[in-house]
Design brief:
- By secondary structure, the protein is α+β, with helices and mostly antiparallel strands.
- The chain has six helices and three strands; from the N terminus they run βββαααααα.
- It has a three-stranded antiparallel beta sheet.
- A hairpin with a 5-residue loop joins strand 1 and strand 2.
- The chain is rod-shaped and about 90 Å long.
């Protein structure tokens, strides 16, 4: 199970002394928790890509009149609802898992990806019966039982194939 929340946002001073907002995203998958910091533009790009392939929840609008904490809190709640709506769908797109930095191999308990390929190469069953040659391409002339399907069809079509 995957749980996603956005408990807070932070103002970050940029290199050009222009502040921007990042949203702190907490991700818990298979008992492992990690934190990401993403800007609105990154979430918007994710939404744009997902909308091409999937039905997505409502995404908070880009335009904000003023940048006070009440407006940012409202956007934070909208982004959190959006992410939670995405993870509660039946199929989780790989692009979403990559965005949330969820590696399904480690979430399934595998220490490395090679372990997955080793497990996939194991046979899940053993053959019970095998034939040395295709009996339809190389019919046996040694006698034995007649092919009742061929006999039945030839009799139905009134063919004399025997």
């Amino acid at each position: 199970m995957i749980d996603v929340s956005i408990p807070q946002f932070k103002q970050i001073e940029g290199e050009d002394e222009k502040a921007y907002t990042v949203y702190v995203i907490e991700v818990c998958a298979a008992g492992r928790r990690h934190t990401l910091e993403k800007r609105y533009s990154e979430l918007s790009a994710l939404n744009k890509e997902l909308k091409k392939m999937y039905l997505t929840p409502e995404f908070p609008p880009k335009r904000v009149r003023n940048w006070n904490s009440k407006v940012l809190e409202q956007r934070r709640r909208g982004l959190e609802a959006y992410l939670q709506g995405l993870i509660h769908q039946d199929i989780l797109p790989k692009i979403l898992l990559d965005f949330l930095e969820i590696n399904m191999a480690t979430q399934l308990g595998y220490e490395d990806v090679d372990a997955i390929s080793r497990d996939m190469n194991k046979a899940s069953h053993q053959p019970v019966l095998s034939f040395s040659a295709d009996s339809f391409l190389h019919p046996s002339q040694k006698g034995g039982l007649p092919d009742i399907v061929v006999v039945g069809v030839s009799q139905a079509l009134d063919l004399n194939l025997q």
